[in-house]
Amino acid sequence: MELKIIESANKKAKPSGALGFGKYFTDHMFVMEYSDGKWHDARIQPYAPFSLDPSTAVFHYAQAIFEGTKAYKNKAGEVRLFRPRDNFLRLNDSGDRICIPPVDVDFVLDSLRKLVLMEKEWIPSDEGTALYIRPSIIATDNTLGVHAARNYIFFIILSPVGAYDAHGPEPVGLYVEQEYVRASKGGTGHHKVAGNYAASLKAGEKAVKMGYDQVMWLDAKEHKYVEEVGSMNIFFVIDGKAVTPMLGGSILPGVTRRSVIEFFKSEGIPVEERLVPIKEVIDGIVSGKCTEIFGTGTAAVISPVGKVCYGGKDYVVGGGKMGKLSKLAYDGITGIQTGRVPDRFGWVEKISEE
Ligand SMILES: *Cc1c(COP(=O)(O)O)cnc(C)c1O
């Protein structure tokens, strides 16, 4: 397929001051459409609203998927992508779960590289900042019938984002949710399906109202095993080992999660992927066996946990500070992403020539 490029005639002013997350969007976006059984009309075009009929399928039945990855620029002006192929492979997996046709991974990767290079000036280079990349596919049939759509729009938008915490990662407080669940086996929890996030909002609001930052999710069936935190994967350091819930059909297979596992193994740190009972975690915090907890995801990379609320009681982890392995993972992964640390894994793709 050919990629058409339509340059914007009205370039926006770049934001000044705090970037926050997902507040500003660049001048261009990638778009292609699906109809008559194929993707077509791939183009990089000026960033603009879509005009969609009120009957459009995605508005009613949430047939929509998305991805999230980042481009990093260092002070020397080098631009890097971190394992971007993994995101498009996962996009196709998510699509398969809710009957969205797959995209050509090589083609969209190539289009993404072109788009990011076109928007190079928008990529911030301060410590902790990046250009967040949001690919999405939405169903666009104009009918209220409940069935897999025959028409879709795929688009990629870009947003310069600030450091998650201005002074490096700050430990967060978690509320262990025992009423609502995020995902159940056989559902859509291990795919980046838009509806999952609507389903998680109420518990998130409840946690914030109670003074915590994020929800720690338990399994849907027994409310016994830890699954994720907010929209991140979760790691525990128990007896010096890095322990993370195994992927079992309701946990999102994070690219950051996989990277932390590979990174720790290469550092000689034992890693266990298994069921993690909440009881083991709480008992471990009390006895001093569980010394660190952290979340992993593209947005924050590593988010240390300082406090966990379970059954109405607060438990402070690792003195409420970021622990040693959390810091090792943070420095290792962000170092590779930005080029500060040599990439011995082949994860990073440098897309600029400077
Ligand atoms: C995206 C996401 C993650 C993290 O995945 P990354 O690929 O590391 O960004 C974890 N859990 C949920 C529910 C997610 O949506």
> And the CATH topology of the largest domain?
D-amino Acid Aminotransferase, Chain A, domain 2
End-to-end separation: 29 Å
Mean pLDDT: 96
Let me know the number of strands.
Answer: 18
CATH architecture of the largest domain: Alpha-Beta Barrel
Number of helices: 7
Portion in helices: 10-25%
β-sheet strand percentage:
25-35%
- How would you describe the shape? globular
What kind of assembly state do the chains in view correspond to? single chain
Question: Bound small molecules, which ones?
Answer: pyridoxal-5'-phosphate
Q: How large is the radius of gyration?
A: 21 Å
Give a quick rundown of the structure.
With 354 residues, the protein is an alpha+beta fold.
Explained architecture:
By secondary structure, this protein is an alpha+beta fold. It is 24% helix and 30% strand. The protein is built from seven helices and 18 strands. The protein has helices spanning 57-61, 84-97, 105-118, 194-209, 255-266, 278-287, 324-338; strands at residues 4-5, 28-35, 38-46, 64-66, 69-73, 79-82, 130-139, 152-161, 172-176, 214-218, 226-229, 233-238, 241-245, 271-274, 290-297, 301-310, 313-316, 348-350. The strands form two sheets. Strands 1, 2, 3, 4, 5, 6, 7, 8 and 18 form a nine-stranded mixed beta sheet that branches. Strands 9, 10, 11, 12, 13, 14, 15, 16 and 17 form a nine-stranded mixed beta sheet that branches. A hairpin with a 3-residue loop joins strand 15 and strand 16. The longest helix is centred in the middle third of the chain and has 16 residues, at 194-209. It binds pyridoxal-5'-phosphate. Pyridoxal-5'-phosphate binds at residues 68, 192, 228, 231-233, 252, 254-257, 296-298.
